[in-house]
Structures are given as structure tokens and as C-alpha cells.
Design goal:
Order of helices and strands: HHEEEHEEHEEEEEHEHEHHHHHH
Strand content: 15-25%
Shape: elongated
Number of helices: 12
Structural class: alpha+beta
Helix content: 40-55%
Radius of gyration: 31 Å
């Protein structure tokens, strides 16, 4: 019996979409439900992938520059799977004085610090890195900071640094030679300077700390548990918690707005199913009279709604994934034709996209459950109809 119901449901789908003899309104609602749900799911997959791309790019660029964890003492034992490197580190806020004053963060890093490799991988580096010699006074500035200060490679850079002498704050002037620049494509390009940890430690007469670089920066909580017994001075999740929370909230809001469009498409599916119920009451009564249980009759209409929904979900997800992967090239083509760029003025050279199987799977699963709920609710009135009265 269930096989018969399934076959009849498939025939209803074919009839509602393709047969010229189908009522116009019924055919219109069926196609509207199919197309709107397809476009809604495709848009949801595409926007989710773009938001994931922005989130991942921002995270990679930020974590390439900021220390993952800073501790007061060096690690006696380090887990190779968790900790990528432990290097001397010192950081202080100061004021760059050149064509105006700018508050900046000065990082003192060691020669073997992975920050050099990360900056080269996620951005660009011009010139050279500061010498590790304590006697050298060399510095590297973010490209945006250098431009805004009107400086060039080889210029002298004056920075006012806070220093505490016998409990009294005594600002100290420091002069460096600008030997290089870096461009990460983030706000840090306008607020960060890098010098040797030996130079900065000697200048401030202050002992350095230790920068812990993680193999997987996202496993910050696990890394902190591994560092029990050490004094953790700062970590990236605490320092930038509000920033990443804001990015996550923006993603949730965008997905929620698109989910409303998908919900409207599901309402079209419900309307199509309800109209079909009205049109096929006579046929349902004949099937009941021939011995088909009312539950199996309801299954026919549920099959109709679910098949429409599954086709729309499958095409929508496939279309959304395909467009997501081709979106950077598509936007580049649109920019070359029209001169309009959606990311103009941002830190991105192209639209970042990150298609995640988990997100696509979650959209598919939620869409499937929503279709099942909508079709079940839309077919409930069939149980309240006196189908036998249609034969009198």
C-alpha cells in the first residue's frame, strides 16, 4: 500500500509540473514553490559561505599578527602537537611622532618567531626584518601606518614609550631606523610596529615575556589547560573576544534574514499542497471507497510535498555551492565590465569564500525537517474531511 501511495504521489508531482491539462493555478503554485525554495536555499548556502570566508580571512590575518598566548615564564615541557613555538616577546603601547601623533603597539619579537613566516604567508613584506642585535635600533611598520605618517624606508622613526623608573612614570624617546614594512590587509597595518625583542628589552630595561604560538589557534582553551601552573598574561580569545562575537552575530543575523525567505518559500509549498487537496478530494474519496486507508491517502499528498521539497533542496544546495566557488571569478568579471566592486575600500583583494560541508549539511537537514513539518501540517485537513460524502 505504501508503495502505491508513493507512486501516486510521484504522479501528482509530474502532473502538477508538466501536464498541460493541470489547472493553471495549481501549476503556478507548484512551480512557484519549487523555484522560490530552490533560490532561497541557494542564497542561504552562498551567503553562509561568503560570511564564513570573511570570518576565516579575518581570523587568519589577525592571528598571524597577534600573540596567541603570552606567559611570564618559559615552558619547561611543550607538547609538540599543541605548541608550535615558544619565543621571547615584549609588547608595549607608544606614540609615533611623524606628521602628527599616532598611538601604536610596538612588538618585540625574536629572530625565530613564526610571525615572520605568517606575515609573509598571509600578506606582503617589503625591505628586511630588524636586526636581532641589542645595539641596533631598527623597526618595521605596517604599510598603512607608514603611508599615513608620511615615512619611507630608510627614514628615522621617533616613538614615545612609557617607562617606569622607581615607581614614577617617565616617558622615554626612542629612535629607530625604518628598515621594512608589512601589509597584512587588516586594521593592524595602521597600528602595529615590530622590532627586535632584544632591542626593546634593553631600551625599556625590562625583562621579556614569552609568546606561545599554537599549531591550531582555535584550540585556545585546550592550550590554556596545558599551561596550568604558568601565569598567562594575555591570550587572543580574551583580547579579541568581542570582535569575533560581533562577526558571529553578523553571520547569524544574515542567515536569519535569508531563513525568512526560505520560510516564505515553504508557505508557497503549503499553499500548493492545500490547493491540490481541494482539487483531488473526489479522487481521494474513490481511493477510500476502494479500500485504501486514509493514512495511505494522506501519504500520497505528503509524498507530493516532500518530493517537491527534496528536488528544490537538492538543486538549491548544488546551485549554491557551484555559485559560491565561482563567485570570486564572477565578481571579478562584473568589476571588469561595470567598474563596480562590492569589496572596494575593504582589506580584501577578492571576495573570500569558504564552503563548509557542515553548514551545507545543516541547511539540508533543517530544510528537510521544515518540508516534512509543512507537508504534514498542510495535509492534516484531509483527515477531518468526510471523504465518503464526496461520493453521495
Amino acid at each position: 500500500m505504501s508503495r502505491l501511495s508513493f507512486q501516486l504521489g510521484l504522479r501528482l508531482v509530474s502532473f502538477g509540473l508538466w501536464k498541460s491539462s493541470a489547472p493553471r493555478l495549481s501549476k503556478f503554485l507548484a512551480w512557484t514553490a519549487l523555484l522560490s525554495l530552490t533560490l532561497g536555499i541557494a542564497s542561504l548556502v552562498m551567503i553562509t559561505s561568503v560570511m564564513n570566508g570573511f570570518d576565516q580571512k579575518l581570523r587568519d590575518r589577525l592571528l598571524a599578527m597577534v600573540p596567541h598566548i603570552v606567559v611570564s615564564d618559559s615552558l619547561t615541557e611543550a607538547s609538540e602537537g599543541t605548541f608550535r613555538a615558544v619565543t621571547p616577546f615584549l609588547q608595549i603601547d607608544g606614540m609615533l611622532v611623524a606628521a602628527g601623533s599616532r598611538y601604536i603597539s610596538v612588538q618585540g619579537v625574536a629572530a625565530n618567531d613564526p610571525i615572520r613566516e605568517e606575515l609573509s604567508r598571509h600578506g606582503t613584506v617589503d625591505g628586511r626584518w630588524p636586526s636581532d642585535s641589542p645595539d641596533a635600533r631598527e623597526i618595521v611598520l605596517g604599510a598603512g601606518l607608514m603611508r599615513s605618517a608620511g615615512l619611507r624606508l630608510g627614514d628615522s622613526v621617533r616613538i614615545l614609550l612609557p617607562a617606569v623608573d622607581k615607581g614614577v612614570l617617565r616617558p622615554r624617546w626612542a629612535q629607530f631606523d625604518l628598515v621594512g614594512t608589512f601589509a597584512l590587509g587588516a586594521e593592524l597595518d595602521y597600528s602595529t610596529a615590530i622590532t627586535s625583542v632584544n632591542q626593546l628589552s634593553r631600551l625599556l630595561n625590562e625583562a621579556h615575556h614569552y609568546r606561545v604560538t599554537l599549531t591550531q589557534p582555535t584550540e585556545i582553551e585546550y592550550a590554556k589547560r596545558q599551561l596550568q601552573g604558568l601565569t598567562i598574561l594575555t591570550s587572543w580569545d580574551e583580547q579579541y573576544q568581542s570582535f569575533f562575537a560581533a562577526v558571529k552575530m553578523e553571520k547569524i543575523m544574515m542567515v536569519s534574514l535569508l531563513a525568512l525567505l526560505v520560510l516564505l518559500a515553504l508557505m508557497s509549498l503549503s499553499s500548493s499542497l492545500q490547493l491540490l487537496l481541494v482539487e483531488k478530494l473526489g479522487t481521494a474519496s474513490m481511493l477510500l471507497a476502494q479500500g485504501l486507508p486514509s493514512g495511505q491517502i494522506r501519504l500520497i499528498f505528503v509524498t507530493y510535498g516532500m518530493v517537491l521539497g527534496l528536488v528544490a533542496l537538492g538543486i538549491g544546495c548544488a546551485l549554491g555551492v557551484a555559485i559560491s566557488y565561482g563567485l570570486p571569478d564572477l565578481m571579478a568579471w562584473v568589476e571588469s565590465i561595470s567598474g563596480f566592486s562590492m569589496i572596494e575600500g575593504s582589506y580584501f583583494a577578492e571576495l573570500p569564500v569558504d564552503v563548509r560541508a557542515f553548514d551545507v549539511g545543516a541547511i539540508l537537514l533543517c530544510g528537510l525537517l521544515a518540508c516534512l513539518l509543512i507537508t504534514a501540517l498542510a495535509s492534516r485537513p484531509l483527515l477531518r474531511h468526510d471523504l465518503m460524502s464526496q461520493l453521495r
